[in-house]
């Protein structure tokens, strides 16, 4: 099983070939930094980045809304109640290939 750890916009993701995953909202220019590549027996770790390794990603769905998060605040004896809801926007990515 071949997998890699990539850093996209400051967050790290463990990805495998042919797998789809959600990342934070991205633009068209997508250049992931490869931190680690592991094959069956061979593991290459970057210090901090592997310069020759390459992970090819394809944007499947540009903008996809995540689950809604509800935040409620309450202050006792002051009759203050507040409700805020937000939905994060993600990009669905598919891993085409991993090369070391």
Give the class from helix and strand content and strand pairing: mainly beta
**Largest beta-sheet details:** 4 strands, antiparallel
Structural domain tally: 1
Number of DSSP helices?
0
- Report strand %: over 45%
Tell me which oligomeric state these chains represent: single chain
Terminal Cα separation, in Å?
A: 14 Å
| Secondary structure: helix percent | under 10%
Measured on Cα atoms, how large is the radius of gyration?
19 Å
Strand order within the widest beta sheet:
2-1-4-5
Instruction: Note poorly predicted spans.
Output: none
Whole-number mean pLDDT: 92
Instruction: Sum up the overall morphology in one term.
Output: elongated
Strand tally is 7
> SSE order, as H and E?
EEEEEEE
Question: In terms of topology, how is this protein built?
Answer:
Blueprint: E1 3-8, E2 11-16, E3 20-24, E4 33-38, E5 43-45, E6 54-75, E7 80-99
Antiparallel strand pairs: 1-2, 1-4, 3-7, 4-5, 6-7
Quick take:
By secondary structure, this protein is mainly beta. The protein has one domain. The chain is 0% helix and 68% strand.
Explain this structure.
GO terms for molecular function: rRNA binding; structural constituent of ribosome. Belongs to the bacterial ribosomal protein bL21 family. With 100 residues, this protein is mainly beta. It is built from no helices and 7 strands. The protein has one domain (3-99). It has strands at residues 3-8, 11-16, 20-24, 33-38, 43-45, 54-75, 80-99. Strands 2-1-4-5 form a 4-stranded antiparallel β-sheet, with no helix packed on it. It has a 3-stranded antiparallel β-sheet with strand order 3-7-6, with no helix packed on it. Strand 6 (54-75) and strand 7 (80-99) form a beta hairpin. The mean pLDDT is 92.
């Amino acid at each position: 099983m071949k997998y890699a750890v990539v850093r996209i916009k400051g967050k790290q993701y463990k990805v495998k070939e042919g797998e789809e995953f959600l990342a934070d909202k991205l633009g068209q220019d997508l250049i992931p930094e490869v931190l680690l590549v592991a094959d069956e027996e061979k593991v290459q770790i970057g210090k901090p980045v592997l310069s020759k390794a390459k992970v090819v990603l394809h944007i499947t769905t540009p903008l996809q809304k995540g689950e809604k998060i509800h935040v409620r605040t309450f202050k006792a004896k002051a009759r203050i109640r507040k409700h805020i809801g937000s939905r994060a926007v993600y990009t669905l990515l598919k891993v085409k290939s991993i090369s070391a």
